[in-house]
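Here is one chain, start to finish.
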Amino acid sequence: MDVRKFGYIRVSSKDQNERRQLEAMKEMGVDKRDTFIDKQSGKNFERVQYQLLKRILRKGDVLYIHSLDRFGRNKEEILQEWNDITKNIEADIVVLDMPLLDTTQFKDSLGTFIADLVLQILSWMAQEEPDKIRKRQREGIDAAVKNGVTFGRPKATITEEFVQVYNRWKSGEITAVKAMQEVGLKKTTFYKLVKEYETKKS
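Its structure:
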């Protein structure tokens, strides 16, 4: 029985480049036509190319994945899909950046136990990583705000330049559009500052 080699590649968005993963598949002898690529989030397995690949996989085939986080991001679903492929379909999985996750190598019970253990740990890490990144970003933003860093567009304020342009506009020397251009403000911001300035004056 001929063993067929398949490759599965996932990148998070259309901007991410899959070249590195494709090169790795080529090195393993996976034909390009047997490489399936999804360009979407790894939060679940409802991915067109992945589902197509699963329908093609047969007993004894080998599926190559570059790294576990390219396979998926949800721990329970990673384990479920892994077991479905290795136990129900009876195909093998090789994770290229983690030699212990190679079901072609570990056929005895100890090897299976070690691979299962590593899989549990890595699938947990694959799920934890995005959460950690979000948490670090949140903490970074909070710390920056505490230290007086402001995010977003700077708040428009009444400056000396604005007052001069305002006076020229009010006297009819320039149009409102020209006034906005000179101070570099959008219409709503310009009139907001006009209102603020006139309220202060009165």
